[in-house]
Amino acid sequence: MTAPENHEQPFQPLFTIRRSGRLEVVVYGIVSVVTGGDCQSLMAAGDTDFELWSRSLLKPWQLLTNFKILKSHYPALQDKHFALFMASHSADADHLKALEEIIEICGLDEGQLLCPPARPLDGASRALMKERGEKPQRRYHNCSGKHSGYLAAVKAQAGNMGNYLIETEAHHSRLKTILSLLTGRQSESFTATTDGCQLPNYALSTRELSLAYMTLLNRDTLPAAAQASELFENYEQLGSLMLAYPQMISGLGRLDYKIMAREIFADAPPMVAKEGADGLLGIGVAASEKYPHGAGIAIKLSSGFDSHHMEIITREILAALGLTAPHKVEHKAEAGLSENVKTDPGKGEKIKTDHIKSEYHFLPSLARR
Questions:
Q1: So what's the pLDDT on residue 245?
Q2: Which of 28, 45, 75, 120 could form an SS bridge with 11, CB 3.0 to 4.6 Å?
Q3: Whole domain around residue 99: which residue ranges?
Q4: Does residue 311 come out as left (phi exceeding 0), alpha (psi in the -120 to 50 range) or beta?
């Protein structure tokens, strides 16, 4: 059997756990962390130039393609509605109410949504759906807010609303122009696929994603051509909306929500975050004394999304960058990663954990400042 080419092996071990010296857990992936107007790499693990499908990490820039159109044609739309336009929502009660408001304000029909029928991610909404005996609905799809934004923009410009998924439509061409200005690549270089919600999606490298997320809270780090483009006129509002409406962007209890709502990493500068299907997380960090131009983080797990592993990796990255205080040993023990002995708070008994050793393989790549 012939070994695959190197470009088919872009992942490296990000962290490992050994129990009594025997390897027990290996998590593979790619990490890219950047900062500054000069786009300095702070941390890199795996092939950060490997292009992978951007999935829901693309949503802020998908909204940007239609932002001015939606603002000018539908003045009744509120900020929470614009947040839902770039959401991967859980279909909780607030999400569904906001979607209904969008449909009414923009004169849409739920039947015009072309995302697949789905069940809610939110437990209460899923239980209510079961109680009603409902089948999966398009409104419950986590991308239904984004689709309603596309529909409203096409309607405002008297386009064919049934064609909004087609890659040759004007809004998708605008998106490729935006990505070209962000990355410095030619627009025709972006490889396309069909995302799970049926809209076109484009391949970007982990480094490009980390650079893009850095700009969401740090407009000065945009390339000069992007800063001068009218397509980026409303750019600051993307990051502001994400910070102001973390629940609308995601859902209670999810990792990107907890980061933006400061339920975790509360001592770090403000951060926007977005989960993407199959193991993606993008984080944009606001400017701080240590990083005057902020920072961008992109993580890809090769095995798909695992919130526990993703939070562990993010925690270690932020601590290594000096953006959060190193977490206490007992927190590691609760995650099964401690290298010490922990006291059971209920019984005062010693629980042996010093036979468990964890190693974070991306940390040696940190560029010291």
A1: 98
A2: 28
A3: 30-304
A4: alpha
β partners of residue 51: 205
Return the C-alpha torsion angle 34, 177, 161, 196, nearest 10. Answer: -40
Task: For residues 59 and 216, give the distance between their C-alpha atoms in angstroms, rounded to a whole number.
Answer: 12
Closest listed residue to residue 271, CA positions, set 310, 319, 323, 211: 323
Residue 15: phi and psi, rounded to 5, are -150, 155
Q: What is the largest CA-CA distance in the chain?
A: 70
* pLDDT tens, residue by residue, 186-221: 999 999 999 999 999 999 999 999 999 999 999 999
State how far the Cα of 101 lies from the Cα of 139, in Å rounded to an integer. 12
Distance (Å, whole) CA 310 – CA 49: 20
344 falls within a domain: no
Task: Give the percent of the chain with pLDDT over 90.
Answer: 86
Instruction: Place 297 in a pLDDT band, splitting at 50, 70 and 90.
Output: very high
Rounded to whole angstroms, how far apart are CA atoms 35 and 210? 9
Q: Which helix (H) or strand (E) holds 284?
A: strand 280-285
**The total number of structural domains that make up the chain:** 1
Cβ proximity of 284 and 271 under 8 Å? yes
Q: Is 122 strand, coil or helix? A: coil
Residue 358 in any domain: the answer is: no
Query: What tens digit of pLDDT does each residue of 31-79 get?
Result: 999 998 778 999 999 999 999 999 999 999 999 999 999 999 999 999 9
State the Cα angle at 149 between 188 and 172, rounded to 5°. 10
Gap between the Cα atoms of 46 and 237, Å rounded: 32
Residue 76 lies in a domain: yes
Q: How far apart are CA 223 and CA 32, in angstroms?
A: 19
Q: Which residue's entry shows tokens 């502001």?
A: 240
Query: What CATH number does residue 131 fall under?
Result: 3.40.710
